[in-house]
Amino acid sequence: MKSFFSFPSSKFNVLMALSFGVSVFSTPVSASTEEVCVRASSGDVVCGTPVAKPSSSSKKPDTDETTQTEVSGSLTLELKSCARKQNTVSCTLSISSSQDKGLGFWLRYTKMVDREGTEYHPNKFQVGKSIAGENGRIQMDLVKNIKYKTIIVFEEVPISTPQLSLLEISLESDGGVKFRNIPIINPDGSFTLIPDDNPPVRPPSSNNSGSKPKVCLPVVGCL
Fold first, then answer.
1. Residue 19 and residue 41: Cα distance in Å, rounded?
2. Least buried of 8, 11, 167, 223, by fewest C-beta within 10 Å?
3. In this structure, are residues 181 and 169 in contact, taking their beta carbons and an 8 Å threshold?
4. How far is it, in rounded angstroms, from Cα 214 to Cα 99?
5. CA pair distance 122, 181, nearest whole angstrom
6. Cα separation of 16 and 19, whole Å?
7. Other residues' Cβ atoms within 10 Å of the Cβ of residue 110
8. For residue 189, with 0-12 CB atoms within 10 Å meaning exposed, 13-18 middle and 19 or more buried, which class applies?
9. Residue 142 bridge partners (DSSP)
10. SS3 sequence, 146-167?
11. pTM to 2 decimals?
């Protein structure tokens, strides 16, 4: 009689075989090369395919992690990511308010800017289930402490663009909210973050603020 079972691994089969006094066949005649078989004390041959233990690295990453947060009045905007699919870049955010609030979003004044200074305006702007219409505007009432998923889609972005220097979201009556230096995530999960070209300039030390430059003249020397 021949039975088929799945085992955690071939090593486990060998240990079980030794523990229960059965014989192990490395290349049995009646089993395929992918199977491991043992002969029980009763004479029955038991075959099965080893099953590898799932690797801990197969765990999916947390895609809901916030990368940047900006606050404007009672509003909180949390940027999750900007991801690429060919020449389309989709930015995902959540928008919430600390109070019940009516708010408008302007598609025409919302933009992204790349490192070469090229501006892109969204082809799609969606907050919750509300989508910007022909006039490029969303008008809705935000419920207190509810996070509204927001998707802003930009098309015709060159594949050579590694990151956004600026993502500006226009809010009616609340001005604009700006996110800076956002890496664009590629389909394989990779991204490139380029340091800011214009780091802040440090003011001169206060110890040297009162010092005067020296003047050197022939014969006289330095004064």
1. 12
2. 223
3. no
4. 62
5. 18
6. 5
7. 22
8. exposed
9. 101
10. CCEEEEEEECCCCCCCCEEEEE
11. 0.59
Burial 115-143 (b: 16+ CB within 10 A, else e): eeeeebebeebbbbeeebeeebbbeeebe
148, 95 contact by CB (below 8 A): yes
Residue that is written with structure tokens 């029955």 in the block: 44
- In angstroms, rounded to a whole number, what is the distance separating the alpha carbons of residues 79 and 163? 14
Nearest to 182 by CA among 164, 159, 155: 164
Between the alpha carbon of residue 30 and those of residues 6, 81, 113, 191, 196, the distances in Å are 16, 54, 66, 51, 66
User: 77 pairs with which residues across the strands?
Assistant: 70, 95
| DSSP labels, 112-154 | EE-TT--EE--SEEEETTEE--TTSEEEEEEPTTPPEEEEEEE
What is the DSSP code (8-state) at residue 26? S
Nearest C-alpha neighbor of 169 from the set 82, 88, 99, 86 = 82
| Amino acid in the structure at residue 204 | P
pLDDT band at 134 (very low <50, low <70, confident <90, very high): low
Q: What value does the mean pLDDT take over residues 140-168? A: 95
Distances (CA, A) of 46 to 6, 22, 34, 41, 52: 11, 10, 14, 11, 19
* AA letter at 197: D
Confidence of residue 94 (pLDDT cuts 50, 70, 90): very high
